[in-house]
Design goal:
single chain; 371 residues; alpha+beta; Jelly Rolls; ten-stranded mixed β-sheet; four-stranded antiparallel β-sheet; 32% helix; globular
């Protein structure tokens, strides 16, 4: 796994400046970063200190399992509240679920219309009943990350010569999710003799993911540098002639920066011009260590079509990204694939009136049956 220091950094102050030269610099960084690597670093993002929120989340994870189970919303496909360890799995996983527990919440308002149509992914938030500070910090940090994501998408419009607001408008009122994660300490048996993955390699299915940076905790529970250089987040770049499988890049942004990575929705919309970023989270080889992290997922509105936008349509891209699919349908299918939604959720994707059809058939047959 090799470092790749040439990953571009996008300064959001450049995008906000309105100055042609600075705008061009930011657009160039986005085009190179999202096109070649599937990610960029982001400076002057406006996201506050994650430390207090991490402390609140850590305190929650240390509660007894029975108490945490009160906030286990499997009925909402784990899109709100607490998800226990070994719940989620990567689509290409080798059978190993992720060794993590999470908290899911939406940092933006959920439209009533969409709550009726997609009740699980547009659900109201769930919060610990005895910690209002946790909810307040969560919503503040999540809203800041979302605004940084919208600014990046505006820059992507400029980089791709799209009309102003083209990409941000697609995610207006989308089912955006801000998630906190705690990767669990491994036992000596798990850590010995092989490299265990806290999260197997996968790509995110949303539009854009923003990562504000995580932190490791040593076996005594203290914040510490990782015990080895190969622990943590790694991202795979676009394959090239010299690296047909891409290169694994350490997902550690420069001080004060975020990591922003492309999701599958953005890859589809750009016909592969921007590349969804495969990534993996490796655990330390030393037992007892844990890691806290966070991710904000910007999503396309559930009614929007996922298909290459007109400037990116060619015979090759149409073949690659067909058939067109609604973002809401795409999301439900993926949540089933990764084990968060039950297989019965797939019944929401097609004709849903089989009971009425059966009653009609019985009525017609009953009237036409020969005595």
């Amino acid at each position: 796994m090799s470092a790749l220091p040439e990953i571009p950094t996008v300064d959001l102050a450049d995008l906000r400046s309105g100055e042609p030269g600075r705008l061009a610099r930011a657009a160039s960084a986005i085009l190179e970063g999202f096109g070649l690597y599937g990610l960029v670093y982001v400076r002057n993002h406006g996201v506050g200190d994650m430390g207090p929120l991490y402390e609140r989340f850590l305190a929650f994870t240390l509660r007894p399992d029975g108490e945490k189970e009160r906030y286990n919303r499997g009925d909402l496909w784990f899109q709100r509240g607490w998800s226990p360890p070994n719940t989620e799995r990567a689509v290409v996983a080798g059978g190993q679920p992720d060794f993590k527990e999470c908290w899911f919440a939406a940092p933006t308002p959920m439209p009533r219309e969409m709550q009726l149509q997609f009740p699980e992914v547009y659900a109201d938030n769930v919060w610990p009943e005895d910690d209002d500070v946790f909810a307040a910090l969560y919503m503040q940090r999540g809203a800041e990350l979302h605004q940084a994501g919208l600014a990046l998408l505006q820059g992507a419009d400029l980089a791709l010569s799209l009309p102003e607001g083209a990409l941000p408008s697609l995610c207006h009122d989308g089912p955006h999710i801000f998630r906190l994660l705690r990767y669990l300490p491994l036992t000596a048996e798990q850590a010995s003799g092989r490299r265990v993955l806290w999260g197997e390699e996968h790509t995110d299915f949303n539009l854009l993911t923003l990562l504000p940076g995580g932190r490791f905790h040593d076996p005594g529970g203290h914040v510490a540098a990782p015990p080895d250089a190969t622990s943590g987040l790694y991202l795979r770049t676009r394959p090239d002639q010299d690296h047909p499988d891409g290169r694994m890049v350490k997902g550690a942004a420069p001080p004060g920066c975020l990591v922003a990575q492309v999701g599958q929705e953005l890859e589809i919309l750009t016909g592969g011009t921007f590349l969804a970023t495969p990534h993996v989270i490796t655990a330390p080889e030393e037992p007892g260590w844990s890691r806290l992290s966070a991710a904000h997922f910007v999503h396309v509105h559930g009614h929007r079509m996922l298909f290459p936008l007109p400037p990116f349509r060619s015979d090759a891209t149409v073949r690659s990204y067909s058939p067109p699919v609604l973002a809401g349908t795409y999301g439900i299918k993926t949540l089933v694939d990764i084990g968060l939604a039950p297989e019965s959720a797939l019944q929401k994707l097609g004709y849903r009136h089989y009971e009425r059809l059966a009653r009609t058939r019985e009525f017609v047959l009953g009237r036409t049956r020969v005595p």
